[in-house]
């Protein structure tokens, strides 16, 4: 195995594999890009794995090399913050299938010497977790002090406790779910079809072309971004405000401020994300069904776990509403797993876990301190 730094993405490790996949195949070698913050204890007992959401990456608390923006969770991760890098060694990996350094569709296929594109194997959330476990093995970390994740990161956290029940002491699951609903799958399919309808997609073989399916990817991002917000939040921020005009132009320009906002979100997204990765990761999320993986009963997923759990939802999150978190908590209770649950109030919908929230900060800080007695 080898370890290097490439493309400003931080550390990347190449592991020989093979990584066995739920789809029946395998992947070798396996590249994993990751960031670490803080110092690992001599006995490796203070490691916290932070798992990112669909369009996130390993730059949880460091400047993003492509956008120059601060890390996506600097509010929560850092010295003296709830996930305190003075006390813990925090690790964040770019998930399998993504495009910020870990193996994915844009990676070189060793069999052809060209990018995998759509020849990359179909992956699942559990495959992402297995790849993370390979990295922890490489780093000499046998057991995590905690695993923390929101949205798709919460799915990874749940899958970790079920797949490696002896390797996780605590799990914080925020704004997440144990399975995707039909509505979740429907929104993802709209995004995937937008990408594949873009003529520049070229059946996924656009890496050598002068263009990328940026128009389709932008539309996919716009559709998804709506689900991350709340009606109240959109109304408060935009309402029916026009773009600095007193009257509508009655055309197809962005008359309304909310239109301009969504277009900006879509276009800026295409500068940092790969369209094929979006296809693969959304499909992995849609396949996720933790109960189905354990005989159809969600409680079975947690019966062997030795972790204590903290589950958090937000009252305006309609992507993963509180009912989804309650279903997880009921399963934890049925499995006699120690669990706490809270629904927090926020006008910001699903994205609330990424934004300033003093209650969430206190909750995570207290939960982690209870685990180390500090």
Automatic annotation (TrEMBL):
Keywords: Acyltransferase, Amino-acid biosynthesis, Cytoplasm, Methionine biosynthesis, Transferase. GO terms for cellular component: cytoplasm. GO terms for biological process: homoserine metabolic process; methionine biosynthetic process. InterPro entries: AB_hydrolase_1, AB_hydrolase_fold, HAT_MetX-like. Substrate binds at residues 221, 351. It is found in: Cytoplasm. Pathway: Amino-acid biosynthesis; L-methionine biosynthesis via de novo pathway; O-acetyl-L-homoserine from L-homoserine: step 1/1. SUPFAM superfamilies: alpha/beta-Hydrolases. Residues 46-355 form the AB hydrolase-1 domain. GO terms for molecular function: homoserine O-acetyltransferase activity. It catalyses: L-homoserine + acetyl-CoA = O-acetyl-L-homoserine + CoA. The active site is at 151 (nucleophile), 317, 350. Its EC number is 2.3.1.31. PANTHER family: HOMOSERINE O-ACETYLTRANSFERASE. Belongs to the AB hydrolase superfamily. MetX family. HAMAP family: MetX_acyltransf. Transfers an acetyl group from acetyl-CoA to L-homoserine, forming acetyl-L-homoserine. Homodimer. This is Homoserine O-acetyltransferase.
């Amino acid at each position: 195995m080898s370890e290097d730094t490439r493309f400003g993405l931080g550390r990347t490790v190449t592991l020989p594999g093979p990584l066995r996949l739920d789809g029946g195949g395998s992947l070798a070698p396996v590249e994993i890009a990751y960031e670490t913050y803080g110092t690992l204890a001599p006995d490796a007992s203070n490691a916290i794995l932070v798992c990112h959401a669909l369009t996130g990456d390993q730059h949880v608390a460091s400047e993003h090399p492509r956008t120059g923006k601060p890390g996506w969770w600097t509010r929560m991760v850092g010295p003296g913050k709830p996930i305190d890098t003075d006390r813990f060694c925090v690790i964040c990996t770019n998930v399998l299938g993504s495009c910020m350094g870990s193996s994915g569709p844009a990676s070189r296929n060793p069999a052809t010497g060209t990018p995998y594109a759509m020849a990359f194997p179909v992956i699942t959330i559990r495959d992402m977790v297995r790849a993370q476990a390979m990295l922890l093995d490489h780093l000499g970390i046998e057991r995590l002090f905690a695993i923390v994740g929101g949205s798709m990161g919460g799915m990874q956290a749940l899958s970790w406790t079920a797949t490696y029940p002896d390797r996780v002491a605590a799990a914080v699951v925020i704004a997440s779910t144990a399975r995707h609903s039909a509505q979740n799958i429907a929104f993802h399919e709209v995004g995937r079809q937008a990408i594949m309808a873009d003529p520049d997609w070229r059946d996924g073989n656009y890496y050598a072309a002068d263009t990328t399916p940026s128009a389709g990817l932008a539309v996919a991002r716009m559709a998804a971004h709506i689900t991350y917000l709340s009606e109240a939040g959109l109304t408060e921020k935009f309402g029916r405000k026009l773009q600095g005009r007193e009257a509508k132009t009655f055309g197809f320009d962005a008359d309304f401020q909310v239109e301009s906002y969504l277009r900006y979100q879509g276009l800026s997204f295409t500068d940092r994300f790969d369209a094929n990765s979006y296809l693969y990761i959304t499909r992995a999320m849609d396949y996720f069904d933790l109960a189905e993986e354990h005989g159809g009963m969600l409680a079975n997923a947690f019966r062997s776990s030795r972790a204590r759990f903290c589950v958090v939802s937000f009252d305006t999150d309609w992507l993963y509403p509180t009912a989804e978190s309650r279903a997880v908590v009921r399963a934890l209770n049925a499995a006699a797993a120690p669990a706490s649950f809270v629904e927090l109030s926020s006008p910001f919908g699903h994205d609330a876990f990424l934004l300033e929230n003093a209650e969430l900060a206190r909750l995570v800080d207290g939960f982690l301190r209870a685990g180390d007695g500090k």
